[in-house]
Amino acid sequence: MQEQVIKNDNDFTEDKGLQFVKSFLMDNLQLSGLYCFGIHHKNKMYSNAISGEVKTRQHTHYYLLVYTIHSKENAVADLSDIIKKKSKGQYTVTLFIHKATTVRQLTAESKYFYYHAMHKGINLYEHDVVPPCIAFEQEPQRNVKHIKAYWHNRNRVSEVFLQSQGMVDGIDTEPVQEAMMQVAMENTALALINTFLGYRPIHFNLGYLFDICSLFCTLVREFFPRNSQEEIKMFELLSKHISKLRSAHLGPMDFVSTELLQRRCRLFHEKATVLIESEIERLEKLAKENKQQSKNESDGNE
């Protein structure tokens, strides 16, 4: 189930798409630093049965850590949309935007993501005068105790909302049920991201969180694909802003879609639970091995 983005050193370079994205971001943000730490390529084929013409077009998705000198409201969503439109869908991005000064005082656990994104990704840009200033004395290690605590809290929220949603009845309650499922999926996605990347998002749109999850696992593509119009419509039921309930008209709705969505949410949560707990187990084992290795080295120096 787990899918890691693995590229050879020779392949992980600044390509034409990255040059396009980099140029756009430099024109629209005051950058302190810019790093690409994930790339997904996908070929799309278009065929015309009448003319016999077949075209193949490559779509590329980039994961970018962006440090800005000044913050810009709604930058993640707005800039991502513009890049997609300007490239006519050829390039899309998931932006991890942070003001440079806010990430200087991070805990060792929080530094894990930034260290790997900056040191193992592509350094696209660093400001000559005000580059990102994060002190890395050594490679940060994961704190498994913190990971387990965060997972426990997010999982509890997800379970309560999914269980409560299952007890809601009535043909006019679909929007309420969908909002409850959204909260459950948001918390499940946050737990996945923290467990596998060591990152705590500051932008919480469900589509954005799902895009991040697609960097390290296939769950989103399995249960919530967004390719066909029908799939997009299904996802929109789940991702409507909860504030819309303030003016929602609760009449008879398409309960079949809601039931299908319910099954997918439950399966997504079940599969995510298996992935997260397996990863925590792996991290615990790794921590013990590292501790034993340090002890052996210490004993050998005495």
Automatic annotation (TrEMBL):
<keyword id="KW-0175">Coiled coil</keyword>
<protein>
    <submittedName>
        <fullName>Uncharacterized protein</fullName>
    </submittedName>
</protein>
<feature type="coiled-coil region">
    <location>
        <begin position="269"/>
        <end position="296"/>
    </location>
</feature>
